[in-house]
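Hi F.,

I've been meaning to write this up properly since the lab meeting, where we talked about keeping a consistent format for the predictions we share between groups. The idea is simple: the sequence comes first, exactly as it goes in, then the structure tokens exactly as they come out, then a line or two of notes. No screenshots and no reformatting. I'm using this chain as the first example so we have something concrete to point to.
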Amino acid sequence: MEPIQICVASPQDAQAMLAIYAPYVERTAVSFELTPPSLEEFRGRIETTLRRFPWLAVRQGDRVIGYAYASPLHPRAAYAWSAEASIYLAPDCHGQGVGRRLYDELEKILTAQRVQSLNACIACPREEEDPHLTRASLLFHEKLGFRTWGHAERCAFKFDRWYDMVWMGKAIGTPLTPPAPFLPFPEIREKFTLL
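Output, unedited:
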């Protein structure tokens, strides 16, 4: 495998990342969006996220092969130390350690931001055999130390079938009571060697 490089994404990466994301929307139940966002909307998501949280891209040569980002778990102030992580990889990059490396970098940054609780909202098939969704994401997050803390049944309808949603999470950082103030990503970005 050609070496990979993880860097901070920019709005200019939107087209390459949308090319990765759109098939997840159109062909799978991994995302509960029903239609892919426009390029402008996707670019706006990157810009908005980078004001407070990291959005990372992974490149192999000149090609973006995946990305991961964090967002607020909830908008209310008391949730400031909790984040939700999302990750998407090109289909030919699964099972090669790329996702783990992306999550490792994301977790380092979030820890520096003083995030204490890292969470993931994961689509879950209701049947063992589902043409649009496997349990791969659940197993991947389990391997990274995430544990299930919530399960919503039949909460999403896509491809003429119902899907469950599972919340998984893990504690990160050193817990302090009271916690130190959350640091927005732009305030700590220079501490990392990512481009």
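Notes:
The chain has a mean pLDDT of 96.
The helical segments are 14-27, 39-50, 98-112, 136-143, 185-188.

If this format works for you, I'll send the rest the same way.

G.
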